[in-house]
Amino acid sequence: MNQPSVPPRPAAPVASAASADSLSAGLPPAFEQRLREVLRSEVEFIELIGEDLVAAGGKRLRPLVTLLSAQALQVGAPEDAGGHHGDALALAICIELLHSASLLHDDLIDDADTRRGQEAAFRRYGNVVSVMSGDFMLARLLMLLSELPAAARLTRAFGEVASVICEGEVLQFQVAAYGNPTPEQYSRIIYGKTAALLELAAAAPALLLGASAAQEQALRQYGRELGMAFQIRDDLLDLLGREEDLGKPVGSDLREGKATFAVLQLLDTPAGEEVRAILLRRAAHGGDLARVQALCAEYGAAEAGWREVARRLELARAALLDLPASPARQELETLLDRLALPV
User: Fold this and answer.
1) How far are the Cα atoms of 26, 77, 273 from residue 84, in angstroms, in the given order?
2) Which domains does the chain have, with CATH numbers?
3) What digits encode the pLDDT tens for the residues 167-220?
4) For residue 23, what pLDDT band results from cuts at 50, 70 and 90?
5) 304-317 burial by CB neighbour count: b if 16+ within 10 A, else e?
6) Which of 89, 142, 227, 337 could bridge to 198 as Cys pair (CB 3.0-4.6 Å)?
7) Are 75 and 90 in contact (CB under 8 A)?
8) First to last CA, the chain
9) CB of 202 closer than 8 Å to CB of 92
10) Is the alpha carbon torsion for 144, 150, 156, 160 positive or negative?
């Protein structure tokens, strides 16, 4: 087990092409300030991990969706609905805490070396510190939820999504262990890994603000389809992107035996048995990754993946039509445009 030591403070994250489409600039300054306050602890290692989370930034896609959804519902005072103060801001913090806690746990499970360009927390502080810091974030999340209107409904919604996230992660390992991937399993996995939380991020303001059932459903569809597109896109880039753009090694999923969208497409081609063998040996032979990449080009698996991303994004865009036209709704559409093409 990794043993903690007093780690040096990391240098500021280096911007990469993969983070060039960072969305965090769209958040109000009060978000980072409030996040820092919520993560404050008298225990130094927990405090350091919290500071790293704030400093690393990241896309902050999920809390941004929450704040824009609150604005799009046009309920309450404009500044409050926009999330610059008050309940909508606290709700966005809760979304980010759930996401960040899951990342701390995921990095340990995946034995990851880095997160957002920095050494993974469990490698710097040890397994126990990393896991307990994630649990600390979940505890702070519950404290924030308890103070919000509709606390019971929101707490149940967060609990349901946390359960789905856990199931998605475990199912991914289960499918890799059994070696019997299917498109249906893949959809369930990526819904759990990514789409469920984005669905909550979009729909939670409807619970908070007492919006209509139609508006809640519209935001659920928006977040769900955005999340599915986001994860398919991420998986395509993991297999077919460039390490200098991604900030991590290409082909990580293949080396972990995970059949993502393009690989599943290849399993239904004449090269299917060859690809299945590569998947089962977790791309352990030299040239395995390059071979799968070449087969993707030969059989159009990458193009099929990008068509699926586009289809999902259009479903998300259509859902927004059930909301009144507003600058916030336009910003939600703009988020879709940023994911529409490969980088």
Assistant:
1) 11, 11, 54
2) 17-338 (1.10.600.10)
3) 999 999 899 999 889 999 999 999 999 999 999 999 999 999 999 999 999 999
4) low
5) bbbebbeebbebbb
6) 227
7) no
8) 37
9) no
10) negative
